[in-house]
Design brief:
single chain; 288 residues; alpha+beta; eight-stranded mixed sheet; 5 helices; 16 strands
Length: 288
């Protein structure tokens, strides 16, 4: 199947809007500067994103400079929902973010992987209803199946993200224009704008349907990088939130469940670091 890179995206602060790139390196930790900042919930504890604080999706983050090995989280400028600005170096940044969200939060750069307390999930209360929690997280109704979470690293049940990263699961999220077109063709009730789904890489292909579903376990070369496709991406409540000019729309998840079991896109990791650019052709490689 012929495919080429249609677009590349980086999101400097977890769950905030980011920017398209023309080219980028792909390292063992994905795109440099992608999810290199996050907010922590100062009320309930833990690293949190748009699932807990949907207001983050209506913010935009831009790095002041490119990351390097000594500065994985360069200073970042943040545009708030009211179009005012704050900055990671502003002593009042946490107050500004907390006011915009309506809950106490703090902004954090990446910390070393050995600082595991920073990444741990907070203790659950005695009356915690795990099934209700997952149904809310994945925006599933009582009659809809929950996703199979066995595909994810077991450490994610202990940590909010793999220590040393702020990714939900894996360093890269890949989607195709085919899957977006399939959803758009399936219903005219919702807008399946790519911004709802926050991919890192969108591949353009003339194939039809949810072609990514068949990629799990395969290897592909993009530019000089080699990737391994790890898992299908089960979509969560973030896809239904309203932000910018996109309205809140629970029907997005109803359509995703009906058309593709609630999935859209695939997670990938980097087998061999390299460089990619828009227009690069994907080359499928033999199994290692």
């Amino acid at each position: 199947m012929e495919a080429r890179i249609n677009s590349l995206y980086r999101y400097p602060v977890k769950s905030m809007g980011g920017d398209a790139l023309n080219s980028t390196a792909l390292t063992a930790n994905g795109i440099p500067g992608d999810r290199c900042w996050t907010v922590k919930d100062e009320k309930r504890g833990g690293i949190k994103g748009g699932k807990r604080f949907p207001q983050l999706m209506d913010m935009h983050a831009k790095l002041d400079s490119e990351p390097d090995e000594h500065t994985p989280s360069p200073p970042v400028s943040i545009t708030l929902p009211d179009q005012s600005n704050t900055h990671s170096q502003d002593p009042n940044v946490n107050r500004a973010l907390s006011t915009a969200i309506g809950e106490p939060v703090s902004l954090w750069p990446l910390l070393p992987a050995n600082q595991i307390e920073h990444y741990k999930r907070p203790p659950t209360p005695d009356n915690f209803d795990q099934m209700a929690y997952f149904r809310e997280l994945f925006a599933r109704t009582d009659d809809e199946p929950l996703p199979d979470l066995s595909m994810f690293p077991a450490e994610l049940f202990i940590y909010e993200s793999s220590p040393g990263t702020y990714f939900d699961a894996f360093p890269l999220l890949i989607m195709t224009t085919a899957s977006l077109n399939a959803m758009a063709a399936a219903t005219d009730e919702s807008n399946f704008d790519v911004r709802r789904f926050r991919p890192n890489i969108v591949l353009d292909t003339e194939a039809e349907g949810f072609v990514e579903n068949n990629w799990v376990g395969k290897r592909l070369q993009l530019g000089s990088a080699i990737l391994t496709i790890n898992a299908i991406c089960p979509r969560c409540v973030m896809t239904t939130h309203g932000f910018a000019d996109l309205p809140k729309d629970p029907k997005v998840m109803r359509s995703l469940v009906k058309q593709n079991d609630g999935n859209l896109g695939v997670y990938a990791s980097i087998e061999r670091p390299g460089n990619v650019k828009v227009g690069d052709t994907a080359e499928w490689l033999p199994a290692s």
